[in-house]
TrEMBL record:
A Pfam family of this chain: GT-B_Sucrose_synth
InterPro entries, per the entry: Glyco_trans_1 (IPR001296), HAD-like_sf (IPR036412), SPP-like_dom (IPR006380), SPS (IPR044161), SPS_C (IPR035659), SPS_pln (IPR012819), Sucrose_synth_GT-B1 (IPR000368)
Domain Sucrose phosphatase-like intervals: 812-985
Sucrose synthase first GT-B domain span: 200-460
Family per similarity comment: Belongs to the glycosyltransferase 1 family.
Subunit structure: Homodimer or homotetramer.
This protein's name: Sucrose-phosphate synthase
Record field: catalytic activity: beta-D-fructose 6-phosphate + UDP-alpha-D-glucose = sucrose 6(F)-phosphate + UDP + H(+)
Amino acid sequence: MTFAIRREMARNEWINSYLEAILDVGTSNKKRFESNSKIVQKLGDMNRKEPQEKVFSPIKYFVEEVVNSFDESDLYKTWIKVIATRNTRERSNRLENICWRIWHLARKKKQIVWDDGIRLSKRRDEREKGRNDAEEDLSELSEGEKEKSDAVTTLEPPRDQMPRIRSEMQIWSEDDKSSRNLYIVLIRQVQVDAYQVPASICSMHGLVRGENMELGRDSDTGGQVKYVVELARALANTEGVHRVDLLTRQISSPEVDSSYGEPVEMLSCPPEGSGSCGSYIIRIPCGSRDKYIAKESLWPHIHEFVDGALNHIVDIARSLGEQVNGGKPIWPYVIHGHYADAGEVAAHLAGTLNVPMVLTGHSLGRNKFEQLLKQGRITREDINKTYKIMRRIEAEELSLDAAEMVVTSTRQEIEAQWGLYDGFDIKLERKLRVRRRRGVTCFGRYMPRMVVIPPGMDFSYVLTQDSQDADADLKSLIGPDRNQIKKPVPPIWSEIMRFFTNTHKPTILALSRPDPKKNVTTLLKAFGECQPLRELANLTLILGNRDDIEEMSNSSSVVLMSVLKLIDQYDLYGQVAYPKHHKQSEVPDIYRLAAKTKGVFINPALVEPFGLTLIEAAAYGLPIVATKNGGPVDIVKALNHGLLVDPHDQQAISDALLKLVANKHLWAECRKNGLKNIHRFSWPEHCRNYLSHVEHCRNRHPTSSLDIMKVPEEPISDSLGDVDDISLRFSMDGDFKLNGELDASTRQRKLVNAISQMNSMKGGPSALYSPGKRQMLFVITVDSYDDNGDTKANLEDVIKNVMKTAGLTSGKGKIGFVLATGSSVQEVVEMTKKYLINLEEFDAIVCNSGSEIYYPWRDMEVDADYEAHVEYKWPGESLRSVILRLACTKLETEDDITEYTSACSTRCYAISVKQGVETRRVDDLRQRLRMRGLRCNIVYTHAATRLNVIPLCASRLQAVRYLSIRWGIDMKKSVFFVGEKGDTDYEDLLGGLHKTIILKGAVGSDSEKLLRSEENFKREDVVPRDSPNISYVEENGGPPEMLSTLEAYGIK
């Protein structure tokens, strides 16, 4: 009982001391402010800019200590005590006020944690329900499975154990390297087996360049910049890879070096006679060119980057095709997106070009979101506002939808991080993988394949003596005879050695940012409290660069102040080095110093996603001690060059360090193992594994041919009556078929008859168009419906005004017209017939929200190539029962939601929604489908009375991009005519390089209320504010007003 009372008193004493410290800091800040007011005023009058540094806040530190370390009841008792003992002094009143406010913060944090727990519990239940639904469907054997099962039963005897299912993936071989020409696109984010493969990498944010990388300049320019640059170089040096493009954002801002504004930068020059093109950084204009944009603000410019990247890839594909493929374009072998923003870019590019997509997340938004919520310091709304976290999570979910493969560094990343996402379930993924290997149907369900490929490293800078001279020490280098040594001592060695009393002791090295998660304070405590370790070794802490601790961020300041206090507390002067500065180029010398003193490298982080420093240490023959949480488990298993410890256990840390330093045999064995196995983390090994997995993915990815229409050299007359040349046909090899829902031949006859009747009514011959001669596209995407979902009569005026406006421009005859709508092709034909609109004036009709394309100039034939283009991952018939079950929140009668048979097709499942029925929003419905492994696009149309479920890669915007590539028309030369609102895909139509003209008053009822919930991201996270590509035409504006807007765009 006495012990409990003492403990209670101790807790209250801690609270009281923290509150007193807050009061003291507040008073000193007030005095400091008053004394410096005149100085601040003088500085304000000067014409120079002062840096706005975020200074360390002791008040915030103490408040967080109180809120996070003590229970609400302790704070309440302290507040009661303060009230009981208060007096008239100002300090007493302030103490009472502060105590109450902190108590309120603690209660608020508790409520946030409680709400978050409920939310996570609901989400876990929904994920479990989705998995159970999927497993229930997968448990039903198809006819093919039953036959296989019967055959196995009759032909094979029973076995005690199930045979191991072996992967069919083959390791990338150099035997057939001469037959490859690969083009790879990496983005910071075509069957061409007879040619070398090109590739693309995409990495949008941050500052990316090949030399003198400014790593650590800001939070966007970190290790992933170095990773993607080295990956591009390494892939280009791999036999069989023809060209690698690293796509990033072009920045021409005075705030950064001019090199970031160069459109093209060569990363690696191929050897002469190799036939390879090398690797390049391609900088795509995106957003404001003269301003550096942080990653949180890049989201509205995603579609701009996609269109710019498409232009580049199409040009390169044409050029490579002319060089090595007889004029036929060579499309990227793979498109690889890095981080969330580039992942979304890669998803759009892969969907447009129909090539496999690979994703590397690096840092994941949902994991960060959960960690911030657990801290309880900031609300969900504030997190979303500050970090745009919901927009980032949706981009990562979309990337998972489109990705064929996800590259991770460790298994921990798969289970603990990607396992948080709706689009990935490790149990369901394994089950689907087994079914695919057995040739069994997956009922339209897909999960991306997660593969562990650790980042590669360039070991060319590691000197031979680093791996051979195992018995070297510093006696000959820093001893009395050091002046006789010809080789100069690295400056960083002298900077470190000046801290030590005895410079010849083994050096324990820790290298990290001054971040609380790196757990440096626990390492210091373990070292300070272990007398044998202190007597045996020195400790070197490389904690970034600093000038003034008070000018650093709060978290960094707290860590560094704690380090200095612990050094003083344990009297570690002369035993611990903590230099203020070091260069990136000096890091190898720091590793060498630790290795030559027969020291140890330690990474005591609470959780380490990968642990690149552990590999670097192995390259220099330096044994390691590392956290057992995260990536180090896989690294140590592969290299066998050190020990793993619990980062929370001080005794375990000191024991492991002492064991490695004191046991010379163990130290030498770990050193030997690290040097022997380090090749597993080399770039050649990384690229070999990477390309093997990509090739395995391509074998499952049905890549259809994407041809670019050849433009005739001679001009064609307006009549175009004698156009039969195959070069003017949209597809040279593809067969066109009508996409009917029941009887295609009957449906085609009806459409042809309807068009023929329209032609006969006009008394004119059937005209044919040549999209290959078009130089510009006018795309009409006005979603004009009444409350019942019927097309409004004003759509006729919109179409005719747009066509009249085109006739007033100098480009008459060179402008193509596309009608993009959520209606079916039958409804479009009926609408044009009702309003006497000449359907033949359109070059293409995009129907059912972008799932089908028809060509009036080819007798309304459907584009079969486009159908095959968007087919991948389309669940088809497996979707029908699921979508009817999930779409409605409360199904009162059976006819609330019904299949809209007349609008259904092989690529669109249309559902009719009765007015007043509550249906799930797009974001909610998509989440539930993802949890069940179903990948598709969802669009509410016809004033929310219809739900179109279409393939993942299909949309109205993607259909226009497809046409622009096939017809050779730059998206910059496209003009979209839209209303002020529309279907739930309306936002996609506003972004990109195309021009957008918003016709005010053209739309009555819309469907956007069913797009997403209020707590999700906002429109400004999708559509750029004040975009120069968006203009308005006032209500009732006719051709003159439209022409004036076009002239403002430079279209005359």
